[in-house]
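User: Sequence for HAD family hydrolase below. Tokens please.
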Amino acid sequence: MHRVRCGLAEGVEDLLTGWVAAGRSQSILSMYGHEDLVPLVEDFGIESRPLPARRRDAPAPSGGSKAEHMVRHLDALRDTVDPRRTVVIGDAADDAVAARHAGAHAVLWTGGSHGRAGLEAAGVPVVDSPERRPWPRRSAWRPPGRP
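Assistant: Structure tokens for HAD family hydrolase:
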């Protein structure tokens, strides 16, 4: 398989290090096949973070929704993760839809393949840099859609 070599966006390594140092965790849900995802995560050097990378449970057609996969992903982590206190960071509007469906918050990043206008249409914060942290303080977290 041909894979384009790339790295983490500037600031992501420091963000993840600070995130874990503050007692938080991260997990990866990807529509990538598991046999491709694990080496990719290892190549980025983020496999040692506290929660595992997970893949879709069954093949999904290209362009299909991630919503049910997100629900299953967060359910598998239910002993340590509360969806209402979870922030999904994605690069596609479907990531925000999936987060909302699972009861989580979402932040979309413009560094992926989708343009800002399409991301903003999802109705969640959109950032150009991982250093911009638009998620609420823990004390202000509420389930999505509630005041």
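The first helix runs from residue 12 to 21.
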